[in-house]
UniProtKB/TrEMBL annotation:
It comes from the Bacteria. Keywords: Coiled coil, Kinase, Phosphoprotein, Transferase. Residues 330-558 form the Histidine kinase domain. The keyword Flavoprotein does not apply. It catalyses: ATP + protein L-histidine = ADP + protein N-phospho-L-histidine. Its EC number is 2.7.13.3. It comes from Anabaena azotica FACHB-119. This is histidine kinase. It is an enzyme of class 2 (transferase). Residues 282-323 form a coiled coil. Residues 178-224 form the PAS domain.
């Protein structure tokens, strides 16, 4: 009798004998078919790596096949023996109970047991199925390795569970796709404020945990590309609405083939607050230090400013002393010279009058005194120079005391120059001087005090005329560059050293024998004061064999280029 192997796996209630399912055939054909079928199933039995036994209801081992009682799977040496003769009593009793249960229910049964072997305690699993009347087919498998693996997995799971539940940091497991919470630990409950049953099977969107919805999208993108995230700062919302800052470390794990996120969260809200307080304290200290530094710098600046003021006062005193010296020199020399000249004229007139008295012993108080015209002209020129010098002294004194006051207005610079030159024409004609005007036609407007600028031009031309013989030639030019108008007045007269050019506009006492008198020096000094008050510069340059060139600059108005 052959038992179908599929009964063993399908768990049928009873085994079916071959002669019960084979339809009547001719005797020889029936025998051949039976032999082929038995050979096939015997081959299957031999191919199964697990030991297979036939055991009777009373626990005796039976051969698997009458034709091949000693095959590898038949358990050679066990046939005819009882379970209690081979197995420990507790195992034999367990097997006997399972055999009876299998025969009584007709359902596949399984049990596990342990045996002591030379390799140690081994675990086995026995599967029993009805194979005939009052007999079962038993397949035994060594499950020692599987049991050890299960124990290791249980230990690992226990360790994970312990670490998961005892961790002081919140830990959660949620689905990767939806963010649905599968498990959370007590720390997560404590931090979030939600009860465990309020969180499980709900998504992060439903709980509105993410303050910034884009944070989870970025987290998912990084997990999908790298598989893990470390110390990502994220802001979360608790049940109470409180916003906290956390550091999240997460990895993708698979549970039952579904990707999940294992996330460990560390609350850094207090740490950030502490850091903010420390930063604020550091900033306050920095501000205090900066204030101290500024105070020290301010004190230094005040000292420097005071020192500069003192130096300025000393310079002003020196200038005042210089002005005083100029005034004293003027009074003592120039005015005294004029007085001496007047005395000489008066003495000559007096001597002339005395000569007339010899002819007429009785003087006539109404008689006229004749004075040569040249003497009168010199007296007039001397008095004019004195008036110009006195006016210059008064103007310099006013500048020193009150500052130079300008009455500026917007004027065309080229037209202003031409007007000033026209006023100088009698002086030029008197000295037989010629004038060449090379001014551009499109000179811009300037904001200037026209009267004072005309005085500058008169003083510059007058200087050259007084220092040179008649027949002098002047050239007037102007250029526009870097927001300034630069004006050149060039003559072909005598030259001077560059050192004299550099100090031409300084206020100083001139030597009586110097070609540049003190009166002219005063007027040149005023020229520089006027130009600088307009925001420009003035100087003189020496050109060997070409004469002297005066130049000055003035800023032009922004309206002139509109």
């Amino acid at each position: 009798m052959i038992i179908f192997q599929d009964n063993l796996f399908a768990g049928r209630s009873k085994g079916h004998r071959v002669d019960e399912i084979v339809e009547p055939q001719p005797q020889q054909q029936h025998i051949r078919d039976s032999q082929a079928t038995e050979a096939q199933y015997q081959a299957i039995l031999n191919a199964i790596p697990d030991p297979i036994f036939r055991i009777s209801r009373d626990g005796h081992f039976l051969p698997l096949s009458k034709q091949a009682p000693d095959t590898a799977c038949s358990g050679k040496g066990l046939i005819g023996k009882n379970l209690y003769n081979i197995l420990p009593t507790d195992v034999a009793t367990l097997m006997s109970e399972i055999i009876l249960k299998t025969l009584d229910t007709g359902i596949l049964q399984a049990c596990e047991y342990q045996l002591s072997t030379p390799l140690g305690i081994q675990d086995y699993e026995a599967r029993l199925v009805v194979s005939g009347l009052d007999e079962v087919l038993v397949m035994v498998r060594d499950i020692t390795e599987r049991k050890q693996t299960e124990i290791a997995l249980r230990n690992l799971a226990q360790k994970f569970s312990t670490a998961f539940n005892c961790s002081p940091d919140p830990i959660s497991i949620s689905t990767l796709k939806e963010g649905r919470y599968i498990e959370v630990n007590d720390s997560f409950v404590k931090l979030s404020g939600y009860e465990r049953d309020e969180v499980i099977d709900r998504t992060t969107w439903e709980l509105n945990i993410w303050v910034n919805e884009g944070d989870r999208t970025k987290l998912l993108q990084e997990l999908q590309t790298q598989g893990l995230v470390r110390d990502r700062q994220i802001r979360l919302r608790c049940k109470s609405g409180k916003i906290i800052t956390v550091q999240v470390s997460a990895e993708v794990i698979e549970l039952d083939g579904i990707p999940h996120i294992l996330a460990v969260t560390h609350d850094i809200t207090e740490r950030q607050q502490t850091e903010a307080k420390l930063l604020q304290a550091a900033q306050q200290q920095a501000e205090l230090y900066q204030k101290l530094t500024d105070l020290n710098a301010n004190l230094e600046h005040q000292v420097q400013e005071r020192t500069a003021q003192l130096e300025q006062k000393m310079q002003e005193l020196a200038q005042m002393q210089q002005i005083k010296n100029v005034v004293l020199h003027t009074v003592a020399h120039d005015l005294r010279t004029s007085v001496i000249g007047n005395l000489m004229v008066l003495e000559n007139l007096g001597m002339g009058s005395r000569g007339d008295e010899k002819q007429s012993p009785v003087p006539n108080p109404q008689s006229l005194i004749s004075v040569p015209r040249s003497i009168i002209d010199r007296m007039i020129q001397g008095n004019k120079r004195q008036m110009v010098m006195l006016d210059s002294l008064l103007e310099i004194h006013s500048c020193q005391e009150q500052g130079l006051k300008l009455h500026c207005q917007l004027v065309p610079f080229g037209g202003m120059l031409e007007t000033a030159i026209a006023g100088l024409q009698p002086l030029l004609n008197e000295n037989q001087a010629t004038f060449t005007n090379l001014l551009p036609q499109d000179l811009p407007l300037v904001m200037a005090d026209q009267e004072r600028l005309e005085k500058v031009l008169i003083n510059l031309f007058t200087y050259s005329l007084h220092q040179n013989p008649p027949g002098l030639n002047f050239t007037l030019k102007a250029t526009v560059e870097d927001g300034m108008i630069r004006t050149y007045i060039q003559d072909n007269g005598v030259t001077m050293s560059q050192a004299d050019c550099d100090r031409l506009f300084d206020l100083e006492i001139r030597d009586p024998q110097s070609p540049c008198s003190t009166a002219i020096c005063l007027r040149m000094y005023l020229c520089r004061q006027i130009i600088q008050a307009h925001g420009g510069q003035i100087a003189a340059t020496n050109h060997p064999q070409q004469g002297l060139t005066f130049w000055f600059t003035l800023p032009f108005s922004s309206y002139s280029r509109g």
